[in-house]
Amino acid sequence: MLCDHSRPTDGRKMTVNGLIYWLDMAGVIIFALSGVVLACRSRMDPFGMLVLAAVTGIGGGTLRDLVLGVRPVFWVTDPTYLWVILATVGLAILGFHYIHRLSRGFLPVADAFGLALFVVIGAHKALLLGTSGLVAVLMGMMTGVAGGMVRDMLARRVPMVLREEIYATAAIAGGIAYVGLHALGAPGPLAIALSLMTTLGLRLAAIHWHLALPTFAWVVIPHSSPAPGEPVAEGQPASPPPIDPPRPKVRVRMIRPEQSRRRKRP
Amino acid sequence: MLCDHSRPTDGRKMTVNGLIYWLDMAGVIIFALSGVVLACRSRMDPFGMLVLAAVTGIGGGTLRDLVLGVRPVFWVTDPTYLWVILATVGLAILGFHYIHRLSRGFLPVADAFGLALFVVIGAHKALLLGTSGLVAVLMGMMTGVAGGMVRDMLARRVPMVLREEIYATAAIAGGIAYVGLHALGAPGPLAIALSLMTTLGLRLAAIHWHLALPTFAWVVIPHSSPAPGEPVAEGQPASPPPIDPPRPKVRVRMIRPEQSRRRKRP
Amino acid sequence: MLCDHSRPTDGRKMTVNGLIYWLDMAGVIIFALSGVVLACRSRMDPFGMLVLAAVTGIGGGTLRDLVLGVRPVFWVTDPTYLWVILATVGLAILGFHYIHRLSRGFLPVADAFGLALFVVIGAHKALLLGTSGLVAVLMGMMTGVAGGMVRDMLARRVPMVLREEIYATAAIAGGIAYVGLHALGAPGPLAIALSLMTTLGLRLAAIHWHLALPTFAWVVIPHSSPAPGEPVAEGQPASPPPIDPPRPKVRVRMIRPEQSRRRKRP
């Protein structure tokens, strides 16, 4: 049922499923490119590039299909995806002169486009299989986030989802937008467009203005410098407490993002 | 068959499967809480917390269902698990004042409870699907260990299973206890209780008294200080061997845990 | 269909499938041994060894079966694999005196044998299920690479596939050899032998002579020393560019392996 989304039968479904198919291909190409760029920076050889591009391009969808119980996963039934990745890597190697000229900003922006596309596709496929809305939102996030996360871990970088501002948030918002509009009976292309714009808008705004949600921390005014590798703020006093001093002053507060940034990169 | 464990039909099965269902929920809540605590310490934003809580709470079970061929995985058929995680994270954020007051010891103890619960549940579900006992023991360990391992890797900590004393051992012992008692025909609740007590007892004892199994090492009395990042004991002489000295004295011995600890944290 | 490869019916299939079964066992033993050796070096206790041996021995095949939709995975239907791992670890612990005497070169060589075996087995099982040739090549690579990658990540080492020369390349070449010979109608044992020799020859040659494919890099002649943690060559000028200097000289070039090695380990 999922497998023949490229050969749909009735009218409205054709539009939506055909659209989804092309968006899926676009997402695979963009994510594969992001894998190639990162492989270049990590000095991998051409086959290492291929591996990183494939992992990034089809990793999230593979996890989605495994969890949803679609067997075998989409790229085994439709190897077009693999050929597309092969062509992307081949063209990228031929044009590596241009790949290397890409500014440092290319990677997060490409990642944002891939994220937005995969969130919609993951939520769409989950709904198509009849899951509940909550599962569909989670599935969208998982599809969008997983490929990039494995890419970054293989290239030994901190995954963007942990490092960057408003990443999981944008994916969840895009998923909620799609599932909500679908539940309200909005036409497919409209729901897709609005969800894409939600994820993409949040991510690009976060990249451009360094937006972040507040984080929570229990700040202890330390008696001495904390041990290296230890987070600064913790919920308990330092391990050998002084015998009977006035207790250390603690304040619960939300860390506003600017403070957090300023503290990280002074 | 696995999916309707919340609506069992006959008497004894009802008791056991209903019990297992509630224990599963308890394990998800405890593991989700451990994810929230770690996300707090790593200064993640609320949605990052949600991701870490979900990965920890349902990661092990997802891997178990994938390997056992249960499709789709349990939380797709029963989204109650996701709502429970959502509620846990929401309440934890509302009460983050208290979360941050938790002592440093909370995390390993919560992890021990989650581990014990998930080992029983993993072994139980494997036996329910008719696997052999060895597979059921492995499945219990995998269910218990996987969620916490991914949690720690995402939060960039050394996974407890690699760092801590008697972790995999406790999980395997609990699994053997459950599978053995089941094979002996012990009543379900008794087998569950004894398995829980085995895992939990071993882990809590290991945490409290820093128990560890002996490890094996081939100790070379070094000619010079070993290179940083290199383990101290290796099976071969240092790479540029002196021209014709008396060969370095080597002794095979078991490293007792206290020595190992003393060496690590002097 | 896949499950009863140990009890085949007709003549030629028996030879090939029986052979594949024994080669699979050999691969599991070799990879399990490599896991034990690494666990020894990382000072894991006996049960940690068991976990690392199991992950390495059956990790790649598990991923392959999940992606191909074989349910449940092979070692659930045929627990012989688990008993073999148990026996391997047991014998290795009894003979740890000898394990520790193994030279440092043992690990990559054992890994090369396991890789060659698993590439053939992965490609064979994929073709048996009727996938296209491209999918079979990818499946061979995935089966061969995944176990070792997780082993190295759990033992906190850089995965060989990222660190070593000609690793993914050898796996892909072996997969192409098997799939190509199969498509040409070559007899099974011949295709297996030639594919094994392709992967093994490439890997052993790469290990012995430190062969590597050229990598691509856009070399910027730097104005100042690059920040630590940054790759030396990047596609963009340094972040705060001087106001109006002659632009930095950049050259696109392929980095030959020897240069890369010399730079890495001076």
Could you explain the architecture of this structure?
The structure is a homotrimer of 266-residue chains. In chain A, strands 1-2 form a two-stranded antiparallel sheet. In chain A, helix 1 packs across helix 4 and helix 6 runs antiparallel to helix 10. Chain A is globular, with a radius of gyration of 22 Å. Chain A folds into two domains: 16-209, no CATH class; 215-264, no CATH class. The first copy, chain A, has 266 residues and is mainly α. Chain A has helices spanning 11-41, 46-68, 74-77, 80-94, 96-101, 106-128, 133-154, 160-163, 168-183, 188-209, 257-264, and strands at 215-220, 250-255. Residues 1-9, 223-252 and 258-266 of chain A have low confidence and may be disordered. The B-C interface holds B 66-69, 71, 129, 131-132, 134-135, 138, 141, 145, 158-159, 161-162, 166, 168-169, 172, 212-218, 231, 233-236, 252, 255, 260 and C 40-48, 50-51, 54, 62, 66, 71-73, 75-76, 79, 82-83, 86, 93, 96-97, 99-104, 154, 156.
